[in-house]
Amino acid sequence: MNTNTLEPTALDGRGRPPQRDTVRYFYDKKVRSIVVQLALATCILLAIYYLGTNVSRNLNAIGMVTGFDFLWSAAGFDISWTLIPYSASDSLARVYLVGILNTLLVSALSIVGATVMGTLIGIMRLSRNWLVSTVARAYVEIIRNTPALLQIVFWFGGIFVLLPKPKQSLDLFGLGLFPINNRGFYMPRPIASDLFWVCVCGFFLAVLAAIAMGRFAKHRQLVTGKRPVILPYQLLVIVGLPVALFYLTGKPLDWQVPELKGFNMAGGWSLPPAFLAVLCGLSFYQAASVAELVRAGIQAVPRGQAEAATALGFKPNRVMRLVVLPQALRTIIPSLISIWLNVIKESSLAVAIGFPELITVFMVTSIEQGGHAIEKVAMVMAFYTSVSLIVAGILNAYNRRLLAGGRRNG
Known about the structure:
alpha+beta, MetI-like fold, four-stranded antiparallel beta sheet, two-stranded antiparallel ribbon, 12 helices
């Protein structure tokens, strides 16, 4: 006799049949998050594709050629100041590269200047000296309430353009090596020979050796409780090894000093007044925001930390450098990201004084001569977006590492 038997169904802990894998995965938060993000990214890409093809089709309908073939056509105009060789016969792709390099240089130097000045001014705001703290506070209040564009124009038209002519150049530092006038700031230019790479390699090896010595000292401190004095030896290695290689290889580095020839300076490196105006304007403007950020970060550190370090015999400058500032960085870094990104984006204000950054040379000048406005605007937007995301990603990674280290130490 043939009977049909039903196999018993396995039940879960609540007496219900187990859910299928697809249903179980759907209720997983990580899986749902990935699916939603992929769906959103797909929709954005499709929207961009639709808008791009629609614009291209409409432009072609009225006789306007679209595409990026224009990048390989000759630019047909000169650029006043470049970091790499350039001539009017070069392609627009090289113009794009020239604008990017100029923008990155002025942005990077402005970020360094704003961060250094802002940190010092932020510490001055917390000084017990009434005059020092009042001057720092007045600087912050005045600069923060003045537009960045106005400050750039002020530095350009009110400072650097009014400097003496080349024949009456001011000699900075009194060494005869750094003249400054209304044509720009000049400095010696290094000229390396074939064996200079040996000195460069020696310098990097010396830095690695100094880092190894520092790790050895830290390990020694953990084992014995005493940290050996290694700073003099680190400085000796970093300075001594490259200098020794420099003389052993026959001094493979010479300097081209700027000098007056005719009506202008010749030789060396030069920075035009427009570059100096953008650098000073952005540095001084964003230094006020950095100062307030540093002040708030330091005040967020419990006062007992500094008092404990002082009780252990630390001097005030070492308390600030070794105890307070490292803890304040956890508060400072997230907001510092926004300030650095603002510096990069505000470098576009240089178009007001004619400094050849990306927007000046690739949008204003080249669009007037050759059109293709949509493609060029898109390329400029892609550059600023990419740089901002890279800088934000690096600082966010550093901030996560800093927070992780704080949790381990805590």
